[in-house]
Design a protein that fits this description.
Elements lengths: L2 H16 L3 H4 L11 H9 L23 H6 L12 H6 L5 E2 L2 E2 L13 E6 L6 H7 L4 H11 L13 E8 L6 E9 L4 E8 L2 E8 L3 E10 L4 H7 L4 H11 L14 E10 L5 E14 L2 E9 L5 E4 L19 E4 L2 E4 L6 E4 L2 E4 L5 E3 L4 E8 L5 E8 L2 E11 L8 E2 L4 E5 L9 E8 L2 E3 L14 H21 L1 H17 L1
Antiparallel strand pairs: 1-2, 3-4, 4-5, 5-6, 6-7, 8-9, 9-10, 10-11, 11-12, 13-16, 14-15, 16-23, 17-22, 18-19, 18-21, 19-20, 20-22, 20-23, 23-24
Length: about 500
Amino acid sequence: MPLKNVLGYSCAFVARQLGLRHRYVFTKNNRLRIRYVAGLTAAMAAGLPTAIAFSPLSNVPMKFEIASAAQAYNRMEPSAGVEGPSAEDNGAMEEGSLIGGITLASIPQFEEPAGPSDRIVTISSGDALGSVMQKEGIGSDEAHEIIEAMDEHFNPRDLKVGQDIHMHFEPGADKGGYKLTDMTIQLNPLKKLTVTRKGEEFESALEEKEVKEVITAQKAVIRNSLYGSAAKAGIPKAIVSDAIKIYSQNVDFQRDVQSGDSLEVMYETHQTDDGYIAKTGHLLFAQLTLSGRKIPLYRYETADGSVDYYGRDGQSTKKTLMKTPIDGARMSSGFGMRRHPVLGYSKMHKGVDFAAPTGTPIYASGDGVVKKAGRFSSFGNYVRIRHRGDLDTAYGHMSKIASGIKPGSRVRQGQIIGYVGTTGRSTGPHLHYEVLVAGRQVNPRGVNLPIGQALAGRDLKKFKSFVSDVDNQYASISGGAVKVAQRQAQEDDDIN
């Protein structure tokens, strides 16, 4: 192989190891810049081993073979920034002669690529797709063409740290060279982008997995927390959140749930053929068991198109207000006299505090109209909702108020109205929650609130048949869920 190629590959290898940009070492035509010729020649002559197994550009092992300096020098061509030998040089060159005062006893020779090369490059912080490709030996012009080809389906700026790029190279027409033929990027579990060489151009294609609806059943035995136990049983967080919202009409999750209780759920999922869950859908059935008492609930749509959750007797679970307007929070302070944590003296606490991380969603306790939304007194960011003529709820210390929540806007029960924070007079992130009857704060736990509607007549008859169908469906697919729950309970017992 000509000496220019030896020097070129050596420079490419060194540049890659040092993280140098391609353009610093080579010209736009991929020719070695003249300033690197003398240095590489001297380094090779000063003691570069004559048998090394490495690949500067393709990671494919290659061997060096011995060739005389005269043979190598005579094969040089006037290109790539390196001048070929003159007639005078040809006459004077002999094996072991000096070039620039350096003895060249041997010149390394590369073998041609033995076969295809596959590489996987993992994106690191600060990486750009173009520079990643150039580090793998792809010229800047081709890298630009590849990026243009994928523009229809993907913006390279959307690459994320940790994503893998799969590249496939085939031996090129030039000796020792490789060219990219295919490149694949798994954009997410559902989408894969492929760029393929077609002659001298590149084409891209986006492959997307098909998603099908699958009904899934799971059961969790509650130990330390409902969320933690449900996650261990494989129940998605969104489904647990839906179940809490539904049961919070009648269940105080701070006091009523004990270790050993359980939650069973049946819900919609949208899955690929290989089992990846793209998203979850509606919670169709839930059964919360508290101290041996089973509380089943069914999602049912009435003849007029309204959807709600009902017990077996056809009674809606919906009350005027939810007992807890926040998921997974700990009640940090109850209603009544207490020593104020900021002011330092005893003062009536006219609400209930729920400690939770900043940003935890806060829900409207019931349907109503927003009366106040903004900064208010010592409550910081504050929302007050009128549910009926004499019944209001109030929410304080929010980090921010949800979009669209402003005086006069209507809200639905369970709608997000803001997020936990520590604005106003507060020592830490929490929700201050009040229930006001006729303008006076009352203990939220002591308020008697009417329950929702009950199905009757033809609706009730249809509902009873619907309940039987759901029970049969749950029984047919819940065998694995029960086994998981039993194994989970046994593991927890072993730990304890």
